[in-house]
Design brief:
Length: 332
């Protein structure tokens, strides 16, 4: 009996694209235009493509790290610092630029070994090649966020929309879950007034993500794992994370794509050493929800009337104001 290619995967892809588009704008066209040319980073490792849509959507739990929801107060905001005064020792490892066929499985192995959950900011072009890794990430309780489709620094509004929608669609198709967090390539969030006219980098991706309601997640501390000095030095990478002060709940920039196996090996040092110091590893949505819960207690805490002036101002930390990027160095 001869067989012919099934249309089911294609139909599932088109359905996912349509659903993603419906979230915020006109649904993506059925033709799903090809993304802009990949950067050298994103085009580095072509390989045989897995069939998109082949992965069954797992019925996942909806609590704890499986809960990707983010508090409304953070949606559309840029988050680049911890919360001053936040008392819990929470830390969120974020891994960018995957999924990688080598680094990502190793990262998953180490995270599982220590019962730790992380947040993967995936490149859609890679995710579409390796959807089973996304399925596994979600099934093992990790969060998956959008890191664009083609890792563009600069994009037109149309390219930005496609980069976000197509990546969201790939994530949904592999996991059955809609992503809720976004990290721009290179951490670029510059506003137009900061643009260098000679350097056509703008914040179209970030602007689009904010309009779509995604929190734009930068990092409160960097492992500096893209620094040429320590690129292959897992001990130095680990040291940057372990010995950096972490006030207010930390979220750490690392990479599981782009050949960063040293970053993955550093997890073997980072996780047990920080756990021994009382740190709990959480996903980005878990960290944001913990912040929101704490902020709510700060806002509703009764004023110590006798000791305070009559007009007690609202604690600054309870005001959901946009945050500025932290001291984040540009990174791939
Ligand atoms: Zn990146």
């Amino acid at each position: 009996m001869t067989s012919r290619p099934s249309l089911v995967p294609l139909l599932l892809l088109l359905l996912a694209l349509s659903l993603a588009g419906c979230r915020s704008r006109t649904p993506a066209s059925a033709g799903a235009p090809a993304p802009a040319a990949l950067t050298s980073e994103a085009a580095a490792t072509p390989e045989a493509s897995a069939t998109p849509g082949a992965a069954a959507k797992p019925a996942l739990p909806t609590t704890g790290s499986y809960d990707w929801s983010v508090p409304a107060i953070f949606r559309g905001h840029i988050i680049g610092n911890g919360k001053k005064g936040f008392p819990q020792k929470l830390i969120a490892i974020t891994l960018d630029d995957g999924p990688s066929p080598s680094q990502t499985p190793e990262a998953l192995r180490i995270l599982a070994k220590y019962h730790v959950h992380a947040t993967f900011f995936v490149v859609g072009a890679y995710a579409s090649l390796r959807p089973k890794l996304l399925t596994r990430e979600a099934a093992e309780g990790h969060c998956i966020g959008i890191h664009s489709y083609s890792h563009l620094a600069w994009s037109t509004p149309a390219q930005a929309a496609k980069n976000i929608d197509m990546t969201a669609a790939v994530i949904y198709q592999a996991t059955g879950k809609h992503p809720t967090v976004f990290r721009p390539p290179y951490g670029i969030v510059a506003t137009p007034k900061h643009q260098n006219p000679k350097m056509p980098i703008n914040n179209t991706l970030t602007l689009t993500a904010r309009k779509d309601g995604y929190p734009v997640i930068l990092w409160s501390m960097s492992s500096a794992d893209t620094s040429q000095k320590i690129l292959h030095d897992s001990a130095a990478i680990a040291n940057n994370v372990i010995h950096t002060p972490n006030p207010g709940g930390a979220f750490v920039l690392m990479h599981d794509g782009g050949g960063h196996m040293s970053s993955i090996k550093a997890l073997e040092q980072i996780i047990p050493q920080l756990q021994a110091k009382g740190w709990k590893f959480v996903t980005i949505p878990e960290l944001l929800r913990a912040w929101a819960d704490w902020m709510a207690t700060q806002a509703s805490a009764p004023a110590p009337a006798a000791a305070q002036p009559a007009a007690v101002t609202t604690p600054a930390a309870a005001v959901p104001a946009p945050e500025t990027p932290g001291a984040a160095a540009p990174t791939p």
